[in-house]
Amino acid sequence: YVDTNGIMQRVGGWGNFGQMHSDVFAAIFKHADPDRPITVVELGIASGRGLATLAFLARGKNIKVYGVDHFQGTKGESREYYFNDWDGISAANVRLNLRNVEIEDHEYEIIELDTIEAAKQFKEVDYVFLDADHSYEGCVNDIQAWWPLVVPGGFIGGHDLPMPTVGKAVKEFFPKYNKVGDDCWNYQKPL
Q1: Which residues are 119's β-sheet partners?
Q2: CB 54, CB 40: distance < 8 Å
């Protein structure tokens, strides 16, 4: 485990994903082809806290890190949900936030698309972390678009499990999901 709390405290946002992401990386590496890059995607990057954690943990490893966000917020969620600073939620500000914690632009890639459209750019992923549209329909759509892309032995996971809309979607698709901490979950695709 690599302590990522220092990074996460300096990047705005929610969640403490360091331990979970570190554990998932370790599990993936047990089965991964060492000659094939690991592909990790975070859906919904807001200010970049989760993306910073993933990029930091990926340093020195054969891992490609992507963040997907259209930076328009989620339909039905108030702008106040986004730190009362709507203008601060942008790809440019995410890059600035990551540079402020010494994560360089070449260590990750931001894809400014809707999560469903972005899924079409990938053939396979090793880990996808859902934290985008928190509506029930949005969660279902993300699961349906991304779960088929997860390689055997790979993971799908996410944030905000206690939200009724998120919890309902996760429980329907992954009844044997792993609860991680207070508000995260993951599920490993069988080998």
Answers
A1: none
A2: yes
Angle at 151 between CA 169 and CA 137, to 5 degrees: 20
**What's the whole-model pTM score?**
0.91
Pairing state of beta strands 109-111 and 178-180? unpaired
Cβ atoms 186, 155 nearer than 8 A: yes
**From residue 52, how far is each of 74, 113, 141, 144 by CA, in Å?**
21, 19, 25, 26
Instruction: Give the pLDDT of residue 12.
Output: 64
Q: CB-based burial of residue 80 (10 Å sphere; 0-12 exposed, 13-18 middle, 19+ buried)?
A: exposed
3-state secondary structure string across 93-157: HHHHHHHHCCCCHHHCEEECCCHHHHHCCCCCEEEEEECCCCCHHHHHHHHHHHHHHEEEEEEEE
Coil/strand/helix, residue 54: helix
Kindly indicate the confidence band of residue 84, based on its pLDDT and cuts at 50, 70 and 90. very low
pLDDT range class, residue 87, cuts 50, 70, 90? low
Each residue's pLDDT tens digit, 5-53: 666 666 766 666 778 889 999 999 998 888 999 999 999 998 888 899 9
- From CA 22, how far away is CA 57, in angstroms rounded? 7
HSE-CB of 67 using CA atoms within 13 angstroms: 28
Find all residues with CB under 8 Å of 55, minimum gap 6, and list them: 65, 98, 103, 107, 108
